[in-house]
Design a protein that fits this description.
Length: 182
Amino acid sequence: MKISTKQILKVLQVLAWLIFIGVCIEAGGSIFSAFYTLVINSYNAKTYWVGNDLSALYEYDRIHFLVVTLLISITAVLKACMFYLIVKILNDKKLNLSQPFSNEVRRFIITISCLTFAIGFFTAWGVKYTGWLVKQGVPMPDTEGLRLGGADVWFFMSVTLFIIAQIFKRGIEIQSENELTV
């Protein structure tokens, strides 16, 4: 049984939609939980969004609580933006498999590279910030539970995608040179 590229792209499109919905729920839940805790009921800090207990942080300082929840929310929103772009390019049928080297695909890869770099930046900042809070004596959940882990992976992915974008740039140049010579 041979699986075609179109079939693989269809499966990836479904997976991208599922992940997009998941990260949107994560982003919305994180933002709502932070808002609810800060404005309506501070008891919510005990079971912040996915069950993380941030009550000690909230009692230590509301501004530090705001900063940590903002970093969590920013990374979640950036992930949602990234998967929105993936879903969009797959749904808009912008991938021309007969001529894969196009400026649109190159811009898409560069944009995804920038988003992954930003996710890496904010997760690294979150890890350092929560580490600093722990040194101040504030009990904190682990960074993986806060969805702030893996900054090195996001940076690695960003650099890899940037290199692929440069390869696409060269492919576009070669493709246009070949069209001019024909």
